[in-house]
Amino acid sequence: MATKVVELVNNGVLSVEKKYGMSYEEFAKDHLFGDYPVVIGDACKEWTAKEKFTPEFFKSEYGNRKVEVQGQEYNLKDFIEIMEESTMDNPAPYPCKLQIDRDYPELIPDISPRFMYAKPDWCHNPMVEPLLGNADTYEIFLGSPGGQFPYVHYDYLGLHAFITQLYGVKEFTVIPPDQTPYVYPKENNSWVSEVPDIKNVDLEKYPLCANITPITFTVGPGETLFIPNGWWHTAKSLTVTISVALDSLNTSNWERFKMEVTTKVDNKTNAAVAKMVGAYLSVAGGVLRRTKNKVRQA
Ligand SMILES: O=C(O)CCC(=O)C(=O)O
Ligand SMILES: [Fe+2]
């Protein structure tokens, strides 16, 4: 798929801008369809979670909940205490993810309204939901100093990501989609890079990485990073962090979603079933485009 990368060059280096008061039209033109990330400074301005979501809140309200982090189970209170001891040199495991729709639905009012930039949202439409399988599209991430997302990747199934920082500061690194040939996508998981540390690459082992130009920047409380699908990314917390990640699917990424779902079915089942799924998605896409006002806008 051809990608249009709008280069925002700052002192000769690619950069990601921070914008306030952006109109939907500007977002759609420069970012959603323009295929370029942006930090939106005020997307979550109405969310009560900005004040409410603190480590103390999760410890006191949900301390006994079980969480699994990197294969190990903890009580949330114990895990947050480990996070509070975390240092850049000796980080706590990451990520600790809480699934909002399934396990914490009562928190949805605190992270509402869904900001206009993430609408319409077809992820929750009954024609689409069953196809998402175990792709989590609405999660809280808890992180701590030095906690690094385990791999460089682009998001599964063609979805766009909005990551809203509610507490603490996270450093993100993004790489444009046209640099895909240089990030060593894994053979069986082409959305995950083989390279362990994209900012300190062993160029003898991964010589093509000499061609990449990663963009690194921080996202702080109240700020939302939009990552268009296909952009490689990873993240590292600089402090204790609480973020909310939500995915979006609409006209802008529907063709990519369709392609990724049918390829997955083709690999797992067979070409005939993949063809049927593709036909179904073509019809569903037409219906969704015509009924966008009736779609649940969480
Ligand atoms: O905030 C982060 O750690 C990045 C999360 C992420 O990229 C993902 O879950 O796909
Ligand atoms: Fe991601």
Automatic annotation (TrEMBL):
Residues 93-265 form the JmjC domain. This is Cupin-like domain-containing protein. It comes from Robiginitalea aurantiaca.
